[in-house]
Amino acid sequence: MSVASCCLSGFEWDGQPTGRFEKLNQLDVYVAGDSNPDKAIMIVHDLLGWSFPNVRLLADHYARETGATVYLPDFFAGEVLPFEPLLNLRFHEVDIAGFMGRNNRQVREPDIFAAAKTLRTKHKKLGAIGFCYGGWACFRLGAKEHQPPLVDFISTGHPSLVAKKDIDEVAVPVQILAPEVDQVFTAELKTHAFETIMKLGVPFDYQHFPGVEHACFVRGDEKRPGEQEAMVRAKNAAVAWFNQFLSTDA
């Protein structure tokens, strides 16, 4: 299983995460926000994993702005790709193919499903958001095969490893945050998602971000024209989506 370089390059943001560390099933998990029995959000991280500071900072933002408990589990079972060579485009120094083989969809899907099932027992409402690698997982979490549903809604930014079948079978409200330039979530997949989900009878929010590239929502450069605005807009869009569907009256 190969990945595009855009799935691994990017920038590390300033800031210090303020969450805590717990266990979720057998997984380590970063938790942001107070314990709220009414509402929770699970983040499925990208290829840089649960310890990449940017995604923890996003978890902190989501918790503050929704009042939900936000969980960021380690779905790579302790394995972490080295940030420094990847962010500086030295991909030859990293065994990416081996990493992807150890962390492919079939290997990690059971843990992702199990984490959602456990959180379902703790909270009245549960949503999921995933970026890049986490995108396919969110569609699978929202699939019609799960009765009752594993999550109440999903959001995904520049998803990767997504198959058309994943899109066809989603059965919960869907938000897609889609950069204009994306060699992974291609124009064909974007069109398929838009045309298919519109017919599925679920709430659907498609957000187009002109002029920015894959991975900008979690690894964008605030000094690059347009990326700071896109990061803020994507965060705000996700928070608004969460707040619609986390209400226990919804």
Automatic annotation (TrEMBL):
Residues 28-245 form the Dienelactone hydrolase domain. It comes from the Eukaryota. GO terms for molecular function: hydrolase activity. Keywords: Hydrolase. InterPro entries: AB_hydrolase_fold, Dienelactn_hydro. The keyword Metal-binding does not apply. It holds the Pfam family DLH. This is Dienelactone hydrolase. It comes from Aulographum hederae CBS 113979. The lineage of its organism: Eukaryota, Fungi, Dikarya, Ascomycota, Pezizomycotina.
